[in-house]
Structure prediction request, 378 residues.
Amino acid sequence: MSDGPPLDLGEVLRRSNRDELLPLAAALDLRAKGRGRDLLAQDIEQRLRATGAKNPLAVMLLGRSPPAWSVVLAELATRRGVAARGSVTETERAVLAQWRASDANEAQRAAIARVLSLPDSGPTPSDAASRLGPRSQLPLMRPPMLLAVFARVLPFLAPVLAGWVLYRLHRSRSDALLLPAVLELQRLRVLVQRRLVLVLVGPPSSGKDAAMKALFGLDTGGINPVAGSTRTVAVYTAPGDPSIQVVNTPGLGDVLTELTLETREVLDQADLFLFLVNAQGGVRQRERDEFSRCRQRRRPILVVVNKVDTLQESDRERFLADTADKLQLERTQVVGAAMDPLPQLADSPLGLKAVHDWLSDRLADLGRNPDSLRHLGG
Prediction:
């Protein structure tokens, strides 16, 4: 895992898939049925922030913006007798440690222990005892005097007492929801920050299945001359590093709406993109649109013009430069390759070294060991 700053709440949720979000939704008593990943992530963030609001009625009825997760978490930590740490993730872990040491049940303690013991997730924070401040004392009064005073102030105290009761009930319920949610959020945070997701994107017939096999030795069984043969989002583990996920996607323009939505959700989880362009078709409006969706994620992208073996050698450089120009890229961001070349032209893939070198450099940038890709050879 890289040593960068901890991800904020929105980023953790955005980079999680829907199945990974379900335990967190359940902890928050949220209905997940019928909600896609994006809507579920929004609901989770809203519930987490609104649950910790000091004035939930203002959030629910007046539409006021709930506090940031860092504020909610700091107040939860204070209520649990835990000092805020240097980062959100450290504070989350400190709260979990305190919960484990105090009122968590046996199953919760076991789950907390597993999360806190995961490697590469920072040191286990010290347990902090929950302390209550001293109770304030009313001055002692004789019963008649006390009743008289109480009778006079009751009309004014009733709204205050009702508000205090509602506040205490809200606080009790909010902590009962927030503590299990922090556990699931920390589990998500570790999962997201420890993995690296490499996504292959491209229109139908650009050769994504062939690239999976040539680059990573992953035989998807989908090498097919029929356009759009990839019909599902498929996630694979890179042979050289089990924490690296390689994702093969159907084209964003495929006719099945649910697949297009699933592909767009996967784009949110990407750390790196390989964008494939078919040399037989080049860059058209469809390629521009799909590339724009990747670029919006602000992740490193390498454009691979596949099937360059079908072009005349004298035309290849001009074609690569034209591709870079149409996608508004530097020429160095576009490479040519033939992942499944014509048998009469070559008996093995062409142009893999440039892709391998780019991937190695990006892994190093992200704090990963480039040797995990050594199986690519040259």
About this structure: The chain has a mean pLDDT of 76. The chain is about 50% helix and 10% strand. The beta strands are 196-201, 234-238, 241-248, 272-278, 301-306, 334-336. The chain has two domains: 9-132+141-193, 195-376.
